Amino acid sequence: MAAEPIPTELSLDDDPAFPLHRGGKLEMRSTIPVRNKDDLSLAYTPGVARVCTAIADNPELAYDYTWTSRVVAVVTDGTAVLGLGDIGPAASMPVMEGKSLLFKEFANVDSVPIALGCTGVDEIVETVIRLAPSFGGINLEDISAPRCFEIEDRLRAALDIPVFHDDQHGTAIVALAALTNAARLVGRPLSDLRAVVAGAGASGIAVSRILIEAGIGDIALSDSKGLIYEGRDGLNPVKRRISEITNRSRLTGSTEEALRGADVFIGLSGGTVHESSVATMSKDAIVFALSNPTPEVHPEVARRHARVVATGRSDFPNQINNVLAFPGIFRGALDVRAHSITEGMKLAAATALAGIVGDDLSPDYVVPGPFDDRVAPAVTAAVAAQARAEGVNRI
């Protein structure tokens, strides 16, 4: 079979995504005018030297007299980009630019996309630490598991600015918000629900952790080899730790077997769950089939058996979209110059998101949409307040 021809520039521009991306989606703009020699002498030498000297004497002044207090680095190594996998740093840049675009559009947070030409854990950690003095926060993006866990943990320990791996925590926060409202709709507390999470990558681990923190009744997590339980052979350190706090019933076998009588299914695996398995779930079941672009079970099929269905897609109700979380989270953290983003701040963000739905709750509306202009302000306020309550704020 002959290879497909390489697309020409003309054929690329026939796809509307390519003209939109031509030249990139971001640019740098100055915040002050330079119209004459007096402006120049203040913005640059000699005036700038006085500011540099003051910061050298008191490093905290950098937050007031440079951009560091309001700018986030969006950092990737290109190893787990969307559903595309390990496509490398250059090919990851359209996504990183897109992330920065969303930061600005949804919460007026400035950010710089940085695609690293290294994949070793030590290299990434050392590189980000060296870059950190230029930024007020670090958003890690599209770094493959299990490396992403160690990278985030080490950077959080080393830096005194927020470090947030959005693939983990953004998904987890929005999923918790949606599940909180879904549970309210079916008239049951989270503590009464048994959940099954398919997929033990970054998102699956983080969703499981935040649901446990929020008080879920029980949760069974599965990977490509079946259900994870304490003592199972071949678990890496991350899965071994999660096995110690999940699956209290010590279920074994497959995801489908665990779904029998389960109240909640959350899919983050890229796999498939058959309708017959969804049909074995409890009355008023909740199904979050979040893999993109193909959910684990088609939403219309899931609705035959579930009271509430959510996906990661924009063309169905109840989209679990990270953009509901990360812009407001960083806006809130930056506004109070937080040292870190704590578990309490994540839970506060989820509570704020869930609260926006209010009395409009319905099976097709358990989480607000990405263009709801109440979202970022609500998350920002909740995160900032929680940071102050926990004492991780500078101002």
Q: Which descriptors apply to this entry?
A:
alpha/beta, Rossmann fold, 2 domains, six-stranded mixed beta sheet, four-stranded parallel beta sheet
What's this, in brief?
It contains 17 helices and 10 strands. The N and C termini lie far apart (64 Å). The mean pLDDT is 95.
Describe the structure.
This protein is 43% helix and 12% strand. It is an alpha/beta fold and 395 residues long. The relative contact order is 0.10.
Elements, N to C (H/E):
HHHHHEHEHEHEHEHEEHHEHEHEHHH
Assigned CATH class of the largest domain: Alpha Beta
Roughly what is the average pLDDT, rounded to an integer?
A: 95
**How many structural domains can be distinguished in the coordinates?**
2
Q: What's the number of extended β-strand segments?
A: 10
Q: In CATH, what is the homologous superfamily of the largest domain?
A: NAD(P)-binding Rossmann-like Domain
Could you say which overall geometry the principal axes of the C-alpha atoms support?
A: elongated
What oligomerization state is this entry in? single chain
Strand numbers in spatial order across the main sheet: 7-6-5-8-9-10
State the secondary-structure class: alpha/beta
**Helical fraction:** 40-55%
Largest sheet: 6 strands, mixed
Strand portion? 5-15%
The radius of gyration is 23 Å
Number of helices: 17
- CATH topology-level fold name of the largest domain: Rossmann fold
What is the distance, rounded to the nearest whole angstrom, between the alpha carbons of the first and last residues?
A: 64 Å
Name of the CATH architecture of the largest domain = 3-Layer(aba) Sandwich
Q: Any low-confidence stretches, pLDDT <50, length ≥5?
A: none
